[in-house]
Amino acid sequence: MPREVEPSLNERQFVLQALQENLRLDGRELDQYRPLELNFGEEYGVADVTLGKTRVLAKATAEVTVPYTDRPLDGIFTIATELSPMTSPSFEVNRPTETEVLLSRLLEKTVRRSGALDTESLCLVAGQKCWSVRVDVHVLSHDGNLIDAACFAVVAALRHFRKPDTSMEAGVLTVYTPAEREPVPLSWLHSPFCVTWSFFGEDGEIAVLDATWLEEQVRMGSCTVSLNKHGEICQIAKLGGTPVDAVALLQCTSVALTKVKEFSELMDRRLAEDLKRRDKGGFMAQLRADNDR
Amino acid sequence: MTATTAPEAALGVLPRADGSAKYSHAGYIVTASVNGPIEAQRRDEHPYEAHVDVIVRPAAGVGGTRERHLESILQSSLAQIILVRNFPRSLIQIVLQVEHSPENDYVNTKLVQANLNFAIMPALFQTAVLALLSAGVPMKATATATAVALSHQDGSKRTIVDPSPREVETAQSVHVLAFTSHDELLLAESEGDFTVKEWDDVYETASKVCCQSALQKEGIAMVLDDEDAGGPAMRHFLRSTMESKVAADLHWK
Amino acid sequence: MATNERLFVLPGETIDPSLIPTHKKHPLRLGPGLRHIPPSDIVPTVAGQLITNPLKNSMWVEYNSHRYIPSQGDIILAQILRSTTDFYLCSIAPYSAPATLPHLAFESATKKTRPQLAPGSLVYARVSLANRHMDPELECVNPSTGKADGLGPITGNGCVFDVSLGFARRLLMARSREDGGVGVLEMLGGEEGGGLAFETAAGRNGKVWVGSESPRTVVIVGRALQETDKGGLGIEEQRRLVKRLVKEMR
């Protein structure tokens, strides 16, 4: 039986009292995110995201496999989030908690169902061979707002990932190893990001962005909005909690768009820096095997 | 942290764990968290000792039998150096997350049966020891570990310390040995074909790598890189890492 | 007054016998981080700095950690989990075994006049019993005098902040500024902080309660403590930190 640590009455009352005066325990504004850092690993497809004390590591990998029988023209794309006791000693391996189920469901809806990754491009031989792309999400440290950090990490990992190059000649499929041909990026359509709002107060009138673990324990309700920088909403999830005024919810969505644009710009910048770092001799353009269409 | 050949470590990287360490060596990057002594579940309670629980998570894929095997080896060796009798009915929880293992560029990756390379064991072991030291869990001694591969190529025998995945693939046998700070053999696992004489040579090489402390050869800790038995001075590395951590903690004294 | 022997030790290392203090009258006392292997071996069990005190004939290893192990006589900040017929079950460290606090272990408490504490409330208590085979026990009263000596339930506006164990020990020193290098609290109440009004209660289990009428003050003090701890700040840096926080949170 996992032992949950509850915050004291003192802390609960204080967090609410402080919020009523527009004050947060770490001195942030109500709609301010903690410093967000994105780092890539040595190999392609590893993204390390730090959001304050929350740390999430996402790793994307791909292998050739047989497609599903009811979808012969599509590749396979899965996101695995298994929380371990590293996240917190109250999590056990192989025993999914509510946090884990919600996290995995939100990532599923945001990244998979919205068609961010073009699964048709993962098909190699219709009905026989296709790519199976898998993203493993590891939460190294949990201080609140796992959803936003995990979604950011998953998107960054997929955009950073390179799958082995393939070629089809006379019905024979050749998959090249990284030593033979430079790997190629995935076919990426749009980058969705999650923004989670937490509500406090009797009528849920105080809305706060990027809650820490303590704030999450004290909140009355929450709402996660997933959208991309063009303002296209992938999903909105408000799972229970105190009822919130509809107009306030719309305002939350528009502030979310501003934040998503900032995220998008940060990710583009970090990806470009990483590409430049790897491409020191300027050979990347020559090593690419596909033509400019 | 980029994967380097010389060992590098950072302590206290996870803010919410009692102790944590990130260790990188020979292409492996592992992060470990230690929590404990905390309350154990009823089924794991031992009346006179603490229960040591090790969990190994690969970077990609779901962990399988191979990971459970590594967990049980690590658990039995770590439980011998931790002072488990000080905390009856408690739990010391060690989680090891593999972040990066060196790629074999000649082979395409296979996912679902994520098979952790045998040669990752010293990195896992070392990260666990560093994390335990960072958490201040009372221990009998510290320990260092290394991997040695024996390969017979072109008729000549070679002893390779910290083999790469390609070298592991082509080697006749791979061995992992760990020694405590009292020069006792703590862990010895081997895979492949080898003779008793060969194992003795491996033992000599490994004990030189693991038990060599600083101040060799005119007072300078050497990082040897020649063909016969090279390898970093593991014990010296461990000591200097911990010394800088303690100096930073006690800066106010 | 401890000697300034900057000797770094790792678990299992042998200690040079010349460093072990001797005294004509007092027996040698071993503090945390050392264990005695009969007949005459003293071995460190953690990585830290070996400190010897020849006056009191004692030695210990100084190190910092985050997991509190209860020890008799320590003053700590505990949180009530729930109440049973005779005692309260309290949490002194997250995920560790809970401690028991008898209902009547408060100043002048009888069955009718004892304090009624709800789950989630905080108490400032002393560890009355701690050994590895039993769950720890707490008390809020001095058993010989019957006085509380400042212990008891925490009331008033405020919040609890987590710090490392080493920092908590420094706060609890008699002269925390000179011996422990922690000047933030004085500075916050003095001119650098603009004379903020607050009170604190520090527990050896790494929890510090900061109370004040104004939530802004509580947040400033809490942040100052946590950032001094995490950043390993010296006295001058603490002064700059205090000034920055007061300005930021205007």
UniProtKB/TrEMBL annotation, chain A:
<keyword id="KW-0963">Cytoplasm</keyword>
<dbReference type="GO" id="GO:0035925">
    <property type="term" value="F:mRNA 3'-UTR AU-rich region binding"/>
</dbReference>
<dbReference type="GO" id="GO:0034475">
    <property type="term" value="P:U4 snRNA 3'-end processing"/>
</dbReference>
<comment type="similarity">
    <text>Belongs to the RNase PH family.</text>
</comment>
<dbReference type="InterPro" id="IPR027408">
    <property type="entry name" value="PNPase/RNase_PH_dom_sf"/>
</dbReference>
<protein>
    <recommendedName>
        <fullName>Exosome complex component RRP45</fullName>
    </recommendedName>
</protein>
<dbReference type="GO" id="GO:0071035">
    <property type="term" value="P:nuclear polyadenylation-dependent rRNA catabolic process"/>
</dbReference>
<dbReference type="Pfam" id="PF01138">
    <property type="entry name" value="RNase_PH"/>
</dbReference>
<keyword id="KW-0539">Nucleus</keyword>
<dbReference type="GO" id="GO:0016075">
    <property type="term" value="P:rRNA catabolic process"/>
</dbReference>
<dbReference type="InterPro" id="IPR001247">
    <property type="entry name" value="ExoRNase_PH_dom1"/>
</dbReference>
<dbReference type="GO" id="GO:0000467">
    <property type="term" value="P:exonucleolytic trimming to generate mature 3'-end of 5.8S rRNA from tricistronic rRNA transcript (SSU-rRNA, 5.8S rRNA, LSU-rRNA)"/>
</dbReference>
<feature type="domain" description="Exoribonuclease phosphorolytic">
    <location>
        <begin position="32"/>
        <end position="164"/>
    </location>
</feature>
<keyword id="KW-0698">rRNA processing</keyword>
<dbReference type="GO" id="GO:0000177">
    <property type="term" value="C:cytoplasmic exosome (RNase complex)"/>
</dbReference>
From TrEMBL, chain B:
<dbReference type="InterPro" id="IPR001247">
    <property type="entry name" value="ExoRNase_PH_dom1"/>
</dbReference>
<dbReference type="InterPro" id="IPR027408">
    <property type="entry name" value="PNPase/RNase_PH_dom_sf"/>
</dbReference>
<dbReference type="GO" id="GO:0071051">
    <property type="term" value="P:poly(A)-dependent snoRNA 3'-end processing"/>
</dbReference>
<comment type="similarity">
    <text>Belongs to the RNase PH family.</text>
</comment>
<keyword id="KW-0539">Nucleus</keyword>
<dbReference type="GO" id="GO:0034475">
    <property type="term" value="P:U4 snRNA 3'-end processing"/>
</dbReference>
<dbReference type="InterPro" id="IPR036345">
    <property type="entry name" value="ExoRNase_PH_dom2_sf"/>
</dbReference>
<dbReference type="GO" id="GO:0003723">
    <property type="term" value="F:RNA binding"/>
</dbReference>
<dbReference type="GO" id="GO:0000176">
    <property type="term" value="C:nuclear exosome (RNase complex)"/>
</dbReference>
<dbReference type="GO" id="GO:0016075">
    <property type="term" value="P:rRNA catabolic process"/>
</dbReference>
<feature type="domain" description="Exoribonuclease phosphorolytic">
    <location>
        <begin position="9"/>
        <end position="138"/>
    </location>
</feature>
<protein>
    <submittedName>
        <fullName>Exosome complex component RRP46</fullName>
    </submittedName>
</protein>
<dbReference type="GO" id="GO:0005730">
    <property type="term" value="C:nucleolus"/>
</dbReference>
<dbReference type="InterPro" id="IPR020568">
    <property type="entry name" value="Ribosomal_Su5_D2-typ_SF"/>
</dbReference>
<dbReference type="GO" id="GO:0071028">
    <property type="term" value="P:nuclear mRNA surveillance"/>
</dbReference>
UniProtKB/TrEMBL annotation, chain C:
<keyword id="KW-0271">Exosome</keyword>
<feature type="domain" description="Exosome complex exonuclease Rrp40 N-terminal">
    <location>
        <begin position="28"/>
        <end position="67"/>
    </location>
</feature>
<dbReference type="GO" id="GO:0071034">
    <property type="term" value="P:CUT catabolic process"/>
</dbReference>
<keyword id="KW-0698">rRNA processing</keyword>
<dbReference type="GO" id="GO:0034475">
    <property type="term" value="P:U4 snRNA 3'-end processing"/>
</dbReference>
<dbReference type="InterPro" id="IPR026699">
    <property type="entry name" value="Exosome_RNA_bind1/RRP40/RRP4"/>
</dbReference>
<dbReference type="GO" id="GO:0003723">
    <property type="term" value="F:RNA binding"/>
</dbReference>
<comment type="similarity">
    <text>Belongs to the RRP40 family.</text>
</comment>
<dbReference type="GO" id="GO:0000467">
    <property type="term" value="P:exonucleolytic trimming to generate mature 3'-end of 5.8S rRNA from tricistronic rRNA transcript (SSU-rRNA, 5.8S rRNA, LSU-rRNA)"/>
</dbReference>
<keyword id="KW-0963">Cytoplasm</keyword>
<dbReference type="InterPro" id="IPR004088">
    <property type="entry name" value="KH_dom_type_1"/>
</dbReference>
<dbReference type="Pfam" id="PF18311">
    <property type="entry name" value="Rrp40_N"/>
</dbReference>
<dbReference type="InterPro" id="IPR036612">
    <property type="entry name" value="KH_dom_type_1_sf"/>
</dbReference>
<protein>
    <recommendedName>
        <fullName>Ribosomal RNA-processing protein 40</fullName>
    </recommendedName>
</protein>
<dbReference type="GO" id="GO:0000176">
    <property type="term" value="C:nuclear exosome (RNase complex)"/>
</dbReference>
